[in-house]
Structure formats: structure tokens, C-alpha cells
Amino acid sequence: MTGATSYEGLPGGVAVSHLCVYDWPAADGRRGGTPHLHLTCSEAYVVTGGRGAVQTLTTAGYEVTPLVPGTVARFTPGTVHRLVNEGELRITVLMQNSGLPEAGDAVLTLPPEYLTDPKTYAAATTIPADAPEAERERIARARRDLALEGYRLLRESPEGLADFHRAAAALVRPRLAEWRERWKAGAAAAAAATGEQLDRLERGDLSHLADAVVRSEQPSEHGKFGMCGRLDVYRVG
């Protein structure tokens, strides 16, 4: 039995967005985004303009990676990351699993009392889509500052990182079935299509080459308030 020979999303089931990193000053004097981690997705930054850095915190310790045009920085699940804007920092973000990092697979480093259950966490982090822009900006900035409080605690006491990992996993557990479906329709489907193409080529079957298509997309939304900055996002993937 043969399977699908094509995958219509972006290559490999990734997704892409364009990011202008927040320049809001924080309590530590830095400007930038909201520290958070992903539980099932890797992410990559392709720096296209400006300058800055990404601060990361893992069980291996704290690091700072400078970001300048041409830098490609990437990290795996479990990496707490905070973008710092040192001057008009612009990034093209590549996200695993059809953009799951911006569709739920992220937990902000809020103080522990906000991580006790999904309802409490959502009340502190949700930005209503129908709110006026000024209100959405206020909420985005407030949750950034709140996440920086929790991030400071993790920086001061790295042993708390394991507790944060456990709390984050408990928060997302109700959504895992939904995430699995996104993975099946994205990265898993893309890999399966490649396997089917290889099988057909081995048999001398070139029929999938006759079904080639070309597509292009424009952003479906401009200036969305994301975790790290204003986003231009695409529906593709």
C-alpha cells in the first residue's frame, strides 16, 4: 500500500514568521522579549537586521549568544530563552512542527504561583485578540515583565529549573492530543511523503514529478503581539 507522495506545507513541516523584537526597557535595563521555553519544538533564529543577543538557560548553565545580521542561532526543547534588543533587532524565525511554538508549545517563566494550573496561567498570559491595540500592548508588556520576575529567580537559583520544567509540562498536558495531530499533519506527513518518493524512485516510478506545484504566500497578519516582539505570521505550514 502506498501513501501520499507530496506535502504541501513548508519544507520539513516547519513554519516561519518575521519578528521585530520588542524595544521595551525592563527592570534590569535591557530591552527585549519575554523569556520562555518550548517543550516539544526546536527553534532557529536567522538574524536579518539590527543587533542584540539571546540569553539562554539550560541545565548546562547560562549563556549569551550575540545576534548580528547573518547569525543563525538554534536551540532545542527545554531551553529557556530571552531575546535582548540592542538596536532594531529583526529576525526570521523558523519553527518546528508547523509553527507549534507560537501555537501553544511555549511556557513563560512566570513566578511559581502563576504556574499552578492552566486557568491561573492563562489569566496572566492571554492577550484578547479583539482588545484595542493599546490594551494588547499593555498586556503583552505586563506579561513580559512578570516572566522576567520568574526568569530572575531561575537565574539566581538554577536548581529551580527542574521545578519549572515539571510545572510547564503539567500546564501543557491537556493540549498534547491537539499537538500530536499538528505533528501528524506536519512534520510526520512531510517525512512520510519523502519516504514514499524514495520508494517510488527505487521502483522507477516518476509519477510524483509530474504533479509538481509552485506556491507563494503573503503574511496573514502583520504586527501581532508575540512573546518576543511584533510578528508577521503566515498560515502556511
How would you characterize this protein structure?
This protein has 237 residues and is an alpha+beta fold. It is 32% helix and 27% strand. It has helices at residues 96-99, 118-125, 133-156, 161-172, 176-202, and strands at residues 15-21, 36-37, 43-58, 61-67, 72-75, 80-95, 107-108, 221-225, 229-233. The strands form 2 sheets. Strands 1, 3, 4, 5, 6, 8 and 9 form a 7-stranded antiparallel beta sheet that branches. The protein has a two-stranded antiparallel ribbon with strand order 2-7. The longest helix is centred in the last third of the chain and has 27 residues, at 176-202. The chain is globular and about 65 Å long. It starts with 14 loop residues before the first strand and ends with a strand. The model has no long low-confidence stretch (mean pLDDT 95).
Secondary structure layout plus pairing:
Layout: E1 15-21, E2 36-37, E3 43-58, E4 61-67, E5 72-75, E6 80-95, H1 96-99, E7 107-108, H2 118-125, H3 133-156, H4 161-172, H5 176-202, E8 221-225, E9 229-233
Antiparallel strand pairs: 1-6, 1-9, 2-7, 3-4, 3-5, 3-6, 8-9
